[in-house]
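Usage example:
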Amino acid sequence: MNIYVELTRKFNEGRLRAILSSGQAVVLHRLAVMSKDGDWLLREECDVFDHILKVLDSYGARYRFGAPLDMRWMVGGWSSHFEFMSGNLRVRTDFVCRPPRISPSRLESIWREQETRSFPFVDLIDLISLKKTNREKDYAVIGEIARKIIDVDDQLRYSRSARDIMELCLAFPESATRIASERPVLVNVSGDLEKLEVALDAERRKLMHENENRLQRYIKAASPWSEQWKLKEKMVEGRSLIESHNALVKNAEGCLPFDVEKQDGYSGVN
Amino acid sequence: MESIKDEFLSEEDLDIRNLDEEALEYYWNMWLEQAQSTNEYDKDRYSHGVFAVD
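Running the assembly step on the lines above writes:
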């Protein structure tokens, strides 16, 4: 069995706790294999974190630099990162509870919708939100995802292809007018392909900068923890993951702030 | 003749849509094994979360 499928099944034994996300969800949507690491959305419950740590411990996982898998940091938008070897594979597992660009109400709906699925992985539209990162390659993925979407309004919301958008606007002018109020690039569609391409490029750049700014806030807030990390990593070397976790939580308290966005006076989901 | 369309991923990438479950898993695992060759290069990288840098 594929390691990310195997882990997802173990994380969700008995009940839904983790939804496979990002790169490995791209595979399950039959788009491309392009990521080595596994990413999951986690339910915000302490016993969920305990279960995930136990599963990872059974694989001999260790913490990578990041936030401890603890409610106080996870609800602040931080991510937790682990690594282990499975045969010849270096397996990396990344977790968030509050994924960027997904509103609290949408997040609630995601958990409700996934309850009935036989294998939990994020839907196409949510995958698009997650992929609006500062990496160029993610916009290629968004471009292909948009072509898999059936709903015309959503195609207009998310397409990265100027040619596709022009065809959609011609075929569905009412939808185009409606969606243009939420996606300014659609205002530029007047048969001028080059103008639309420029607008799409600018839109992508804006999204990339927004994500860079978000990451920058976390990186800055994590600076004191980052300076101590090598020492702390050495401190927990050879210990089980559960023991390491307990020690790292104690050490991160007072060093890694719980809520970066509030600390910076920032509010928003991006 | 087919008209030109904007391309994002290669046809080779997208070909996984034609694989059955068993073939997909085989290809997926094979890809992950081959990708281990870059482990040293990306040992300090984060591809996801708030520390993501490429």
